[in-house]
Amino acid sequence: MTHTPSAETAQTKESRDKALVIDDDPSIRRSLELHLIDEGFDIISAEDGEQGVKAALENSVDFVLLDLRLPKLDGFEVLKQIKAGKPALPVIVITAFDDMQTAIKAIRLGAIDHLGKPLDLDQLDEVIKKIQQIAILSEKGISLSDTPECSFEPNTIVGRSRAMKQVFKTIGAVADSRDTVLIQGASGTGKEMVARALHFNSQYHDRPFIPIVCSALAANILESELFGHEKGAFTGAHQSKPGKFELAQGGTLFLDEISEISAEIQLKLLRFLQEKEFERVGGIKTIKADVRVIVATNKDLGELVSKGEFRQDLFYRLRVVTIELSSLKERTEDIPLLVPYFLEKIRRETGKEISVVPQEIMDRIQSHPWPGNIRELENALRRAVLLSPGNVLLPETLQLEGAIDSTRLPLQIKTMQEVEREHIENIMAYTGYEKKRAAEILNMSRPTLDKRIKEYRISKPGKPS
Asked: Is residue 150 a part of any domain in this protein?
């Protein structure tokens, strides 16, 4: 291992960032050393993979430049060992094998970037600048290790707002009963989470919990899914099949979007709630079932009753206990708990760990109106986690619907589809949404433009997409 001396005093050296260069080519290694020294860095160098791992793990360095083709230890293995020992240490991979497979593998293993040879020093400086910006964000950010309430537990809801505390109290009061519960709230407010909390905090938690989205199936298919069918009941019914009510015996059946069920299913559901019995489609045998029913809707069932679109007697049966869920913008004090909760959930599901959230991101999250509520927050965080290369959640990876961010980092991470959609939207706006002229500017056929407009749901402001 070689150490490149610096002419700076010890006091100055302590304040300088330190880089580790791992490359077996002496000329390339020296070129990188000289460039980084000129940029104000202290340097440690290693000429093979084993030396590189040792230097990275035993020294305090701010980033690593890693060649992939190394003696003694392959560059990918070096990357694995460095990230295993120091997950937050930024590693820039440099390689002559500048192809898709190599880039994908390097990023999957935790590299912050992948640069090809011959190395573009301006491009390298941009990556180093990003690393320094991430370090600043990390210093000023919120460390999740300092957040005591960031643990994730399945079927658990987090919150400290008055509205959520009332929900918790209601769940505690009715969890062990078998009475029907109606959960009302806008899309994405966590209605299924509440249903799961009711079930898994009850004495029946070891029994089945079966969810079904009523709007996802046609009426005849939904009836069969709920109540089962006998062989020959309809075309394609080659054998008898039990429905969800039978499968949920002793447990809970959660019916989401209950407002969308047909009049026939409303009647059959009403009978079950009254008698705890039903018949399969095409059957004559009466089946008894001990099933708790929890339903949810984002619509006003009372209004649907007044319009004659929902049975009044069923409505009364469903609302024995009603839980109202507030929108996220009405309980912003829950956001500091929800962010670490979802980041821990995402870590368990993807293996990608974020330990620092910049204050800038928390400010943006708390000021966002969240039209998609909890679901939108989780999805926005999931995207940001997957696209952040290190352990810091990068501001430019947080995409908020309708938000304008003027303080993004230089790196813009977008898919080709996102870029194309924005370009077509801009051209359509420029032409006043005149498709013929827009197609000419885009050098695109009219049918292709129509297909893209439909695919990307592009519409003139004020008109539905």
From this structure: no
Q: Would you call 265 helix, strand, or coil by DSSP? A: helix
8 A C-beta contact, residue 22 and residue 65: yes
- Helix extents (H) in 276-415: 301-306, 312-318, 335-350, 359-367, 373-387
Phi first, then psi, for residue 414 (nearest 5°) are -140, 150
pTM above 0.85, yes or no: no
Q: Is residue 405 part of a domain?
A: no
Beta-bridge partner residues of 46? 22
Cross-strand partners of 113: 92
Q: Give yes or no: residues 305 and 333 share one domain.
A: no
Per-residue pLDDT of the chain (465 residues; tens, 9 = 90+): 544 444 443 334 445 789 999 999 999 999 999 999 999 999 999 999 999 999 999 999 999 999 999 999 999 999 999 999 998 899 999 988 767 788 888 888 889 888 888 888 988 999 999 888 888 877 777 776 555 555 667 778 888 899 999 999 999 999 999 999 999 999 999 999 999 999 999 999 999 999 999 999 898 899 999 999 888 878 887 888 999 999 999 999 999 999 999 999 999 999 999 999 999 999 889 999 999 999 999 999 999 999 999 999 999 999 999 999 999 999 999 999 999 999 999 988 888 888 889 888 999 999 999 999 999 999 999 999 998 888 889 888 898 876 544 444 444 556 677 778 888 888 888 777 888 888 877 888 887 888 888 888 888 776 655
Q: Which of 290, 325, 360 is the last residue of a domain?
A: 325
Taking the C-alpha atoms of residue 20 and residue 60, their distance in angstroms, rounded to an integer, is: 9
- Measured CA to CA, the distance from residue 224 to residue 141 in angstroms comes to 52
- Domain range spanning residue 285? 162-325
Which of 228, 277, 330, 204 has its CA nearest to residue 195?
204
The C-alpha atoms of residue 63 and residue 89 are separated, in whole angstroms, by: 6
With respect to residue 67, please indicate whether it lies within any of the assigned structural domains.
Answer: yes
The CATH number of whichever domain residue 364 belongs to comes to 1.10.8.60
Backbone angles phi, psi at 252, to 5 degrees: -130, 135
Secondary structure letter of residue 119 according to DSSP: P
Verify that 41 and 87 share a domain, yes or no: yes
Cα separation, 418 vs 396, whole angstroms: 14
DSSP code at position 6 = -
Looking at residue 42, which CATH number applies to its domain? 3.40.50.2300
Domain count for the chain, please give it.
4
Among the candidates 352, 367, 397, a domain finishes at 397
Rounded CA separation 320/458 (Å): 43
